[in-house]
Amino acid sequence: MTTPDPLTDEELDQLEEIALAATAGPWHVRLLDDEGAMGLVAVSTVPDTGLGERWPHFDHHEIVAATLVQQPRYVDTADERWDENARFIAAARQSVPRLIDEIRRLRRQLNASRPQTTEEL
Fold it and tell me: How remote is the C-alpha of 84 from its chain's centroid?
């Protein structure tokens, strides 16, 4: 496996813009039922109640993404990692901004610890 090139400052800025433009977090995985009482795995702005609410008994405005909609089956993955994908999406909402901040902090720390050359003075 090859090591990818480091992220540029411009790429970090683009990621930050994408994160800032997305629906505010935190995001949560919700296990719901669609209209046919089939599984619906969603990412939501509100936590899962554990009740497996069935459409239309949940507010669709709270759903930001779905990784499985079975009836009609139009959101699905061949590897059947619906729950895992939903957890990743929900975690990314909180983690991406923190990772960007951490990269910038570490870069500042690294730059501050480097001795200045005569060209930089």
Answer: 12
Model pTM score: 0.81
Structure tokens at 88: 């990743």
The angle at the Cα of 35, spanning 29 to 38, to the nearest 5 degrees, equals 60
d(CA 48, CA 51): 8
pLDDT digits (tens, 9 = 90+) for 45-90: 999 999 888 878 889 899 999 988 877 777 878 888 999 999 999 9
Which DSSP symbol is given to 71? T
Output the six-digit token pair for 14.
């683009």
89 versus 34: the higher-pLDDT residue is: 89
Q: H or E segment at 43? A: strand 39-44
Other CB atoms closer than 10 Å to residue 111's CB: what's the count? 9
Distance in angstroms (rounded) separating the CA atoms of residues 82 and 42 = 9
CA distances (Å), origin 38, targets 23, 32, 42, 69, 70 = 27, 8, 13, 8, 6
